[in-house]
Amino acid sequence: MELEFVKWLASQSGAAPPISLGIGDDAALVAPPPGRELVVTTDMLTDRVHFDLREHSAERIGYKALAVNLSDLAAMAAEPLAALVSINVPRNESATPLPRELYIGMRRLADQFSCPIAGGDTNVADGPLVVSVTALGSVETNRAWLRCAAEPEDRLLVTGALGGSRLGRHLDFTPRVNEARQLHANFEVHAAIDISDGLALDLSRLVEASGAGAIVDLDRIPVSPDAIKLAHQSGKSPVTHALGDGEDFELLFTAPKHVAAELCRLQPLGCRITDIGQITIDRLLQQRDASGQISPLERSGYQHGV
Question: What pTM was computed for the model?
């Protein structure tokens, strides 16, 4: 299966900048543009954890596997360069179209964001389908967005709407690469993170890295229609889902007050930008309700079991 699959992969992609040598050798050769730093991220997705092979098509799974990595690049304001893909195929699927369908799903997104697949690895084993993608990107030297760069009195902003991703959006989202590109080129952004494990949990990581705190205005959080649907099933509030469901893959970022006001007025992206609160100096994570009452914000979200 592996040799035939590698030959097929090689026939699907060739060498083109920034890849000077692609699939077929011991390793790929990738040349980052001059004056830019290399940005590297990796994510591993496992059946019955991040997707369900019984319910979801291999193409959608492949798409998501690359998309989550491109979302990480976007959170660093990085331009995609290339990706490496490794898959562990269940033995009972080794003779099926599964590997090719995974690649076809990735290829659709790779073409959209000029992020060719430059290599990887395949294995067959008794166990679940596992897809691991490493994405390479580049950013101007010393200009990457970092979690640690939030400043006191920065405003907190998010793209899109949050919550309810498990109803299907977690497989079909578009990583905010283009939106990050526009923000990076035209506006002052201090710190950023993508919302993968939940707004509250990922915000706690950003403020901890910055040695700061935050107050989130609950009535400003953009709640997705899926969060409202899920709330009817769960009995929880839509805002609770928006705070903790995770896998929204939206950008959470901070900017000076005047920049935040301009962004919210102009709405220059293809998705909505919402101001949801403020960075504080007291290292507390807090929430404010519509009446102005302030209380601790629970760090809700997806916690990895290691």
Answer: 0.93
